[in-house]
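Sample intake sheet
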Amino acid sequence: MHIDDRLATVLAVSATGDNQIRVQFRQLVDLLGTMPTTALGAAADPAVDRAMLRLGELSRRIPPAERAAALDRSGVRLRNARLVAELACDHPTVAETAIRMARLSEEQWLDILPTLPPRVRGLLRQRRDLGTAVIQRLDQLGASGPGLPAPPLTETAAAPQSEEPPAVPVTVDDQGGKVLPLRARTEPQSPAPPAAPPAAPLPAPLPAAATLGSAEAETARPTPSEGAARDGIGAIVRRIEAFRRTREATRPAANDAPFLPLVEEGDPARLQAFAFACDSSGRIVWTDASLAGMIVGLLLPLAERSSSQLASAFRRRLPVRATPVELDGPAAIAGPWLLDAAPEFDGEGRCTGYTGKFRRPSPVVAAQPANPEAVRVRQVLHELRTPVNAIQGFAELIHQQLVGPVPHGYRALAAGIAADAAQMLAGFEELERLARLDSGAMAPEPGEADLGGLVEALIAQLAPFTGPRQSGFTLATTPADCRVGLGHADAERLGWRLLATLAGAARPGERLSALLQSRDGTVTLTLGLPEALAALPDPFEGHAPLSGQSLSGGLFGGGFALRLAAAEARSAGGSLTLRDRHVILALPAPRAERLTAPDPLPNPVQGVSGIG
């Protein structure tokens, strides 16, 4: 499918009848549930915003039981974190079904956890497929499961069922966390026979569904006291007190609550997103229950200059999308926000307010400052490469007679020009490679290579040049395992650059030693330094190719080739140093899993000593 317009097609239909409303609700759930999601606070898709608003409108016209049944179908796939977060703020029956049917990754659960109501966190805590990070985050938020603490079990005589006192139902205030017993309506009981007073039975524990919409889902199930009362009313009162103490002790300090004693102080967690509803004057009248104390009553900054865009849309009753807003208040909500909201109208067409969501702006990642010298070098190389490419192209046109017959003399000159241009382009490539490696803009290809086999193959490749001159390298016994954590192509390029530079600088009859060692996770190649390079003040300094040298590791001489080889070794986590008339190349052995990048090594060019 090249163009996915299914969501736009569904939104284009105006659902009027009851069946159309229910069908469109299911269609939106199916489409939104399978759409890719982004982190909360990121820029939202306008079509998704319209679909979310339409879903909210349809939800108000469908009973909660039917909405929950629409979600509890075998074909429903809730893989969109934003949709799950929206459904979690719905009716408790819908929220329970949405949390049970959601199939989110660990990162998605962590992203929407701060926006979930407390009762939903308790439901989420009962899932068995959560990751360790999600469980730890739920524990930090105090979500361990719904329900009041269970009464203690004591051995008592069984009493007749007709003598059991009726259980007193309780409710939990979602705003303030107060537990309020309801007045029980009981029929007069017949007095018990005077022969033997029956023991008071234990009260039945309250079902979890009775507290589904309460905020105690955020707290752990506390341990009941040892001295449990034998009468039903006393047991319930003690359970209520135990629940209240546990709730006060485990309340997270995210809503301007004071820190507990002996607990390290820190900044309260900053909210990343929250839903809201405001009246026609811009005063917030509804938000999540856990945030009501901080947010309800705040007035949108319509009079500030920085919110002129919001004020204009508010006056004209237009939707707002990604509008920057500054909120004042507790540290958890203070700071910059992006506002997405749509106006609400009553049956007579009057605007009753706005509903929407605040979200934090995405953090702007500062670009790493580039090395100015490396940037200038790359700019100069770009300016030089363009005319050289043009000259090479025209020379090849003349040499290949693509535009007509050309005398052989001109063809020979054109061939020489094309060859010189190719060498210049190769030199430009080496200069750019060194600049990119020094500035960190280039990294070697990951992989592994057998350095021992590469060295043996390169020495054999140099034999036609070193054999007649009775020079070259004398390689000692190669260890069994000389693998390095570097791609084969990069390792071969580095080895050729180093060996060709040293072999080209060696005098006739000068043999150079070569020793491979593998120890402590590092493979070391030690090569003898030719006398011509050892006589220089610093072999790493740039200098012209030595007189009579027909083999070189680069266009700009041995010094530049050694500097480039050192940069390649550093980028691979190794080093290239000079010590006691020897060149030492050290590369790390491959590891199964490299969790962190290797520490940058010091520049071997600086502070080189011991060269005779």
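Comment: The first strand starts at residue 170 and ends at 172. Confidence is low (pLDDT under 50) at residues 39-43, 146-230, 251-267, 593-612.
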